[in-house]
Amino acid sequence: MNSFITNFLQNLPEVKGPTQKRLPFSEKLRWTVIILVLYYVLSAIPLYGQSGGSLRQFEFLSIVLGADFGSILSLGIGPLVTSSIVLQLLVGAGLLKIDLTKPEGKRFFQGLQKFLSIFFVIFEACIYVFMGGLPPSVAPGTSTYVFHQFLIIFQLFLGG
């Protein structure tokens, strides 16, 4: 069981580290512009089926989380930061016995952080939708209300 979990966590996708020690400024600038354009495009795509009436309450939170509520990027960096804080607290308190001085311990920690980030994306999306923060545009009690709730959660999952 433990080896299955370790293999699963170590085989989660990740971004490869740079192969060059120093990248040219033009390449750094190119990737920065690509990411910024991608961020602005994704933040301009509204959530399908979501009513926009409740978004004013999240204005300050959107600044803190780097989110754009009402768009695909509504969750922002919240799930990643939450998973990182929770794991660091658990390891620091000794509740999780992970040796971060060894490479396999670091890989296990990073895999666990990725898995927890996915969990927190789903958890936070459910909280926002089911608690009325990002409600569907259809009236509660209609036959498509639950479908629209899960559709919004799925969109938030894709953006997370």
The outline comes out as: globular
Mean pLDDT equals 83
DSSP strand count: 0
What is the alpha-carbon Rg in Å? 19 Å
Q: Please give the count of helices.
A: 6
Question: How would you sum up the major sheet?
Answer: none
What is the string of helix and strand elements?
HHHHHH
Structure classification: mainly alpha
Stretches where pLDDT falls below 50 for ≥5 residues? none
How much strand content do the residues show? under 5%
Description:
- The protein is built from 6 helices and no strands.
- It is mainly alpha-helical and 160 residues long.
- It has a domain at 65-159.
- Helix 1 crosses helix 5 (103-130).
- The mean pLDDT is 83.
What topology does this entry show?
Layout: H1 2-10, H2 25-44, H3 59-65, H4 78-92, H5 103-130, H6 145-159
Helix pairs in contact: 1-5, 4-5, 5-6
Question: Which labels suit this protein?
Answer:
0% strand; 59% helix; mainly alpha; 6 helices; 160 residues
Question: What is the structure about, briefly put?
Answer:
This protein has 160 residues and is mainly alpha-helical. The protein has helices at residues 2-10, 25-44, 59-65, 78-92, 103-130, 145-159.
